[in-house]
Structure formats: structure tokens, C-alpha cells
Design brief:
The chain is mainly alpha-helical. It contains six helices and three strands, in the order H-E-H-H-E-E-H-H-H. The longest helix has 17 residues. The C terminus is likely disordered.
């Protein structure tokens, strides 16, 4: 076979093998829970004794990197725990602090005549909560609690997208 003048080979697209591996990777189903890992990794935060021992200075992404599940699963567990980040690191709220936050939210709804069945302006609620509260609950925790209530169906409007009738589910 003769090549056109100036070419000594045929131009073609193909695949070239550059290495060979004889090992087989077997994938098995697992029951690893991101929720369990986060509960073990995140220190409890309460107003009196801020837990700084386990995750001091560790960001959410640093903690996610240490958990052997996908970031999406970690994010779902993070939301379920109402976990949050402060300047001291990442935390999950203690039971007492969660109760106090809910009490503050419900009191604010009564004081400000906020309808719990109507869409909510999150920034306005956060500002009102921080101006009315008697104890130190960080803004980030309130945001995490409100984020827990958001429509998880993919709406970008968050709490504004639907009524907050799920307040009792935390």
C-alpha cells in the first residue's frame, strides 16, 4: 500500500495500553452511617460548656474528609443533626440548647405574630431571635435549625418556599 506523498503512516484514532493491572476490585454494600460518624466527630455545643475537644478548629469540610461516605450523605446527616460551624470549629447542639432554641423560636412566633403556616423570611427571623434572646445561642445554630426545616426537594428558596409546619420534627 502506498502512502500519500510526505506521509509514512495512516492517521487513525485509537487506544493504547500503557499499563496492566491483574488485581480485581470488589465492591460490597455497606451500612456505614454518616450520622454515626458525625455524632462521634462533632463535640456538643451548649451555652455553658462549649465542646472544643474533638473538632476544635476543624471545618465542616475537614470533618467530611475523614468520613468514609460521600459528601452528599455527610451533608444530609449534618442537616439532620442541625450541626453548625463557629469560629471555634464545628459543633452539634446539645439537647438542652436545642430545646432552648425551639422555645425561643416559638416564643418569637407568638410575640411577633408570625404565622407558622406561611412562608418565612429567614433573615428577619434570625435578626429578631438574636435581639430577643436572653442566652448565648449562636446565629449559626439558629441558621442550622432553620436549614433543617427547609424544603429538601431542591428548591433554592429554602424556608421561603413552603410553610414551616414541620417545626415539631426536630
Amino acid at each position: 500500500m502506498a502512502f500519500p506523498e510526505g506521509q509514512d503512516q495512516i492517521n487513525s484514532v485509537g487506544i493504547t495500553a500503557i499499563a496492566c493491572c491483574s488485581a480485581t476490585l470488589e465492591l460490597n454494600a455497606t451500612d456505614i452511617s454518616a450520622l454515626q460518624h458525625l455524632q462521634a466527630s462533632l463535640p456538643l455545643y451548649d451555652a455553658l460548656h462549649v465542646g472544643l475537644d474533638k473538632a476544635a478548629g476543624r471545618s465542616k469540610l475537614q470533618i467530611f474528609a475523614d468520613i468514609p461516605v460521600s459528601d452528599h450523605q455527610c451533608e444530609l446527616a449534618w442537616t439532620l443533626l442541625a450541626a453548625f460551624e463557629t469560629e471555634n470549629g464545628s459543633h452539634r447542639p446539645s439537647a438542652q440548647l436545642s430545646i432552648n432554641a425551639w422555645r425561643n423560636l416559638l416564643s418569637l412566633a407568638v410575640l411577633e405574630s408570625l404565622s407558622l403556616t406561611a412562608p418565612l423570611d429567614v433573615d428577619r427571623v434570625l435578626d429578631l431571635l438574636l435581639s430577643h434572646q436572653a442566652e448565648e445561642i449562636p446565629r449559626q445554630m439558629y441558621k442550622a435549625v432553620l436549614h433543617r426545616l427547609e424544603d429538601q426537594s431542591g428548591s433554592s428558596e429554602g424556608c421561603k418556599s413552603r410553610p414551616l409546619h414541620r417545626w415539631v420534627t426536630l
